[in-house]
Give the backbone structure.
Amino acid sequence: MRTQVAIIGAGPAGLLLGQLLHRRGIDNIILERQTADYVLGRIRAGVIEQGTIDLLDEAGVGTRMHDEGLVHEGVLICIDGVRHRIPLKELTGKTLMVYGQTEITKDLMDGRAAAAAPTVYSAHDVAVHDISGNAPRVTYRADGKSHEIVCDYIAGCDGFHGISRKSVPAGAITTYERVYPLGWLGILSDTPPVTDESMYVRHPRGFALCSMRSPTRSRYYVQCSLAEDIDAWPDERFWEEFKPRLDEESRERLIIGPSIEKSIAPLRSFVAEPMRFGRLFLAGDAAHIVPPTGAKGLNLAASDVWYLSRAFIEHYAEHSDAALDHYSARALARVWKAERFSWWITTLLHAISENPFDLKIQLAELDHLFQSKAAAMAFAENYVGLPY
Ligand code: APR
Ligand code: PHB
């Protein structure tokens, strides 16, 4: 088969890129290892920046998001039982939307199906070839047969465990990593959210997060050790650990119920540089991972796609490669700022260090955040999303 851009991975990065290119008449094929149902079954975060909202609208898949998404004008931080609010809209003029990544993925899949743009699910043994030449190829197996796609470019949107980054010669890539000695144990429950805005909780028992998916569906997290066994966490234990970390008002308001999903996510910061190798371009988790504390994972995938889609559009529409040549540097500049913010808010809100001096510094930094307009502004600017 022949196409202009072969996209590996039907996560938010791959699907969004495919939709934006398709709408500009640029041929593309998406290859996804899993089935569509499997991709849709993954529970991920759901806080989206204005830039991501605008891109989903540009891709023509924003209607349900605007109908069902929850607009948040602020965010709460609860320290040892005391709530503090960062007025995001007041400080930046910008808001956030709470709308599950699962819903975004569904909207993108529906958009692609409606556009009848080619997507191969259950594509196995995907491999990339000749990325340093002028006619890169992607091979894969589907329905028991081998297939080959000849293309101009390959977009590696296959996540952290994908083959795209792994297919880059070791000497051509540099990776940076910080692994945190903890995880997040998250549950989804059809109970009314305990807070109207997301609330991050720092408590001597450990971190917790109050989030939601709708006025009737809550998403809660508690800090846990990496070696945690999910089977050792029946719902009762989760609520016993979660409730005491909240402020009094929330403890009184909290309605508990059975979990409909429960999972543990490790906390990691990771960046691979550069994000381009000849005709192969990496986007999203294939190139970088952030701990979930800053709610930047999905939004960084979207900003990569913003830069990459414009670069491909400039190449095919104006026959200029300037944006393609600057893609890696431009995307990484925003990636590192989001990595810094995500690392900073993670170390600020989690009991990582045992050193009492570090804990005092954390409290002093939080005190400053709640008393200094400049500090609150810096937090808000990063949390609502830095410009592209
Ligand atoms: N061949 C084909 N598809 C693959 C392969 C492969 N070898 N390896 C992985 N994939 C697919 C995965 O099955 C997945 O559907 O690539 C897709 C990658 O999607 P994501 O992991 O969701 O990554 P991305 O699209 O970059 O989205 C980043 O997802 O994990 C969250 O927090 C993260 O919100 C961020 C977002
Ligand atoms: C979520 O809603 O799942 C969520 C919200 C904020 C985060 C991470 C996850 O920082």
Notes: The mean pLDDT is 97.
